[in-house]
Amino acid sequence: MDKSKNTKPPQAFLRFFRWYCHPKLRNSIEGDLTELYHERILESGKKKADLRFAIDVLLLFRRGIIKPTEGYHSLNTYAMFKSYFKIGWRNLIKQKMFSAIKIGGFSLGIAACILIGLFIWDELSYDKYYPDANRIYRVLGVYNDNGQLQKGVHFQPPFAKAMLEDYAEIEKVGRYNNVELFGAANAEIRRADQDENLYEESITYFDQDLLDIFKLPFVYGNPSLALSKANSLVMTRSKAEKYFPHENPLGKMLIINDDKEHPYSVGGVIEDFPATSHLRFDFLLTLTGKEFWQGEQTSWCCSNYPTYVMLKPGVDYKELERKMTKGVLEKYIIPMMLKEGRTDAYEMVKKAHLELQPVNEIHLYSDGVQDGLAHGDIKFVWLFASVAGFILIIACINFINLSTAKSANRAREVGLRKVVGSLRSNLVNQFLAESLLYSVLSFVIGLMLASLLLPYFNILASKSLVLPLGYWWFVPGIFGASLIVGFFAGIYPSFYLSSFRPIQVLKGNLSLGSKSSSLRSALVVFQFTISIILIVGTFIIYRQMGYIINRKLGFEKDHVIYLEGTHMLGDKKIKTFKEELLKLSMVKSVSIGDYLPVQGTKRNGNQFFVEGKSKVEKPTSGQFWRVDHDYIKTMGMKMASGRDFDVKMASDSDAVVINQEMARKLGLKEAVGARIENYRGWNVIGVVEDFNFESLKQNIGPMAMVLGISPTIISIKLSAANTQHAIASITGLWKEFAPNQPVRFSFLDQSYARMYDDVQRMGKIFTSFALFAIIVACLGLFALSAFMVEQRAREIGIRIVLGASLKNIVRLLTQNFLKLVIISFLLAAPTAWYVMSIWLQDFVYRADVTWDIFALAGVLSMMIALGTVSYQAIRAALASPVTSLRSE
Amino acid sequence: MKKYQLGEFEEVVMLTVGVLYDNAYGVSIKKEIEERLSRNVSVGALQTALRRLEDKGYLKSRDGEATEERAGRPKKYFQITALGKRAMEYTKTTREELWNSIPKVALNLKFASI
């Protein structure tokens, strides 16, 4: 017996039992078990007793013995926290209107933040997916022309190879070329065994080395050989499914632009480029063995190739930049320029340098880089981030204002809690817990709102964002954010509320809720300042948009449609087609020419001189367009002096029409009759008034037009009436000429409007979020005025009894708020003016920022505030005084 | 109608508590049942039954003395309540009524058929 007392039952099982057992039963059952254990040791030895003990413990693990998972905590603080949430919940239920506004405003703000957050996240996630993204750089050529930076990405064909040979730091260099002149960008494509062409828009020439640099994920084919053979191409998965459904397209043939002599074989299929890639192509045609003209690949004359480098690990790219600038310019560029006879070569080169741009900065930091790609802008990321921040702040302010305003209702509770022994820290905890309750609720609702609004936001922002619910960090992240926001929104109210002195509140002589009214006013001013800035911003964006779209352009964009892909007809047939078109009654004039004054049509760069001065003067770079006799007429351009091309004048084949900017840049006062030089001399027969052919963000550049054939586009000027009918007859005519070839229509005015899509989109997004902010601010104002009316109910009752009119009462209640709005306006107007003039600096052609925008915004905000407040005021004024006075 | 719910094992436990009268706690109940009915009783089954009976109000418990062999843990003594007594009586009478209503023939036949 003595021995048995000292042996202990297996501790692991005992601990397990103690852990799961209901605390009320723990002692007595443990006693039973121990008693049995000792008896069993005597009966059958320790081993058996241990085993039986273990079995008993395991068999005790059942319902009725196990402690409940919740609701039984012996630590006092948990119970207190439970009570905080309970009281918080009861308060929430009791004051439905205020709670609804608190939570509603909060969740609106949070929904807006989530949407903007997704947008920003998407913008920031560009080009992160290449395995070696941190070693890949794009080469930029920067030319500093008296402070005006020109950044280009296009380099000469041998540039890539030269760099690889000259610099040991570089592991690989790759190029692409999507210049239309070379037959890239868009083309008609068909399978070698079919007749019907399909139009494709994202085609580029691509180096095998560039594939190696990006390591694009392959579906079919060998990534390191896919483009290594001449006349091979790589296509994306979706295009492969379009051309070769349910087939492995490896080795299959495609014919591009009807060039049956040189079919391309499919060397590989890659996954589609993700939406977050700065490059997005469907077809990559190999550059292996490709030479666009004799000696092109070795010539340093022409820059057409965006070039990317992959550095060896651990190389300082800034250092390499400096080395490259010096080396490349001295070794290649200067000799080339001297060979061309440029005497100012050294001077020119001084102004130029090379830069390496990290690949994942291309999307957001390419402002001013002429690379023909659609970019985001870090400025917009910041703009949106600040709008999101402001909306959240406005929502938090609502929360603070309403909590402190409604303190009257809580003061007695605070007093009583203090009297029965609550510390201030307990009360702070309590109110923080309440604010967390609100915040978490709002986040849940906000998240639901955001997922409801996401499809509309995607249309608005032309993105395809999804809530990242699949990521492990999302839910904890959102929850954490809700705790942080709840903490910050609740910290001031909780200190304020917990500061009441119990004697004063219980005696009832604290003028409740009015104590911090000056702070509340300041916060309301802040809210409205931001709202008014957003309103003004929206107005200015819209005015600028309207200004751009309706500006006098120098050409007439209405009633012009253009057909693309017409070069398939061939040079002869196209002329017949033009004549047939002119026979249609609604067609006013027809012009064959690829160069239209909207973005996305053909462009080039050329250098012009006054004849004979090409070795002496700096070149004027400008556009050199080949058009036909009817171009100027069809586009509705005006001649400033001289004449248009004339069919009857055979000598017009040497003639050139320039724009006013070209005349100015070349310093020609009397342009007509002068001779200018491109690669040969031209007679200037006329000067056309400047017209916009680039975005209105840029200046009109110099340009010249000569007669020539560029057959990809036919533009048709229609008489005003009945475009539908016209399109039907034109399509009919096209079918006769090219039965296998789908026809593509565009309207010049629509293409023009599309140039400003990004501005328009930003305008819309900005408007919607401005609206969000204003709604949230108004919700706060609404609740605040309701509170004020409630507080002054007795005063109002007495005033009514004494004969105050409806007008008196409404004025009494609204004038305070009006004052606040006026102060906000005074603060907001200069700020908005400053911020928006920075934004407008992006545009060369700016709408004026006039006083009426501010007046309108001021009046509008005043009306919104008045409307919000006066609802409560009128309700108070119309209420029967009996109800408010009866209680005394 | 189930006026008093009492399962078979519960009934045995109640009866044993009654038998032990003043000395009914976990270990003694277990031993008594094992001895009298010669069947094994696990601590788990017994404790859950006791808990259930206590919840139904058929048993009440009080904490007793702590002895050395129990490593200082108190015993929990059980006692039948008035409600518990009624429940036991109800079970007994229903059984008896059922016994009495069995026709003699049926019993004989049954025996005969075996």
Provide a concise account of the structure shown.
The complex is a heterodimer of chains A (888) and B (114). Chain A is α+β, with helices and mostly antiparallel strands and 888 residues long. Chain A is 51% helix and 16% strand.
What does this structure look like?
The complex is a heterodimer of chains A (888) and B (114). By secondary structure, chain A is of the alpha+beta class. Chain A is built from 26 helices and 25 strands. A six-stranded mixed β-barrel of chain A has the order 5-6-11-8-10-9. A six-stranded mixed barrel of chain A has the order 17-18-23-20-22-21. Chain A is globular and about 115 Å long. Chain B is of the alpha+beta class. At the A-B interface, helix 3 of A face helix 2, helix 3 and strand 2 of B.
The strand order across the widest sheet of chain B is: 1-2
Task: Please identify, by name, the CATH architecture of chain B.
Answer: Orthogonal Bundle
Q: Overall mean pLDDT score of chain B?
A: 84
The major sheet of chain A is characterized as:
6 strands, mixed, barrel
Give the helix tally of chain B. 5
Protein structure class of chain B: alpha+beta
Strand order across the biggest sheet of chain A?
Answer: 5-6-11-8-10-9
Blueprint of the fold:
The complex is a heterodimer of chains A (about 900) and B (about 110).
Chain A: H1 2-6, H2 11-20, H3 23-60, H4 76-94, H5 96-124, E1 136-145, E2 148-152, E3 154-155, H6 159-166, E4 170-177, E5 185-191, E6 198-206, H7 208-214, E7 218-220, E8 232-236, H8 237-243, E9 253-256, E10 264-270, E11 283-286, E12 305-311, H9 317-339, H10 345-350, E13 352-358, E14 369-370, H11 378-405, H12 407-419, H13 424-461, H14 474-497, H15 502-507, H16 517-550, E15 560-564, H17 571-583, E16 587-592, E17 606-610, E18 620-627, H18 631-634, E19 639-642, E20 655-659, H19 660-666, E21 675-677, E22 681-688, E23 703-707, E24 713-718, H20 723-737, E25 744-747, H21 748-754, H22 757-791, H23 793-801, H24 806-840, H25 851-878, H26 881-885
Parallel strand pairs in A: 2-14, 6-11, 8-10, 18-23, 20-22
Antiparallel strand pairs in A: 1-2, 1-12, 1-13, 3-12, 4-6, 4-12, 5-6, 5-9, 7-10, 8-11, 9-10, 15-24, 15-25, 16-24, 17-18, 17-21, 19-22, 20-23, 21-22
Helix pairs in contact in A: 2-3, 4-5, 4-13, 5-11, 5-13, 5-22, 11-14, 11-16, 11-22, 13-14, 16-22, 16-24, 16-25, 17-20, 22-25, 24-25
Chain B: H1 8-20, H2 26-37, H3 43-56, E1 59-66, E2 74-80, H4 82-101, H5 104-113
Helix pairs in contact in B: 1-2, 1-3
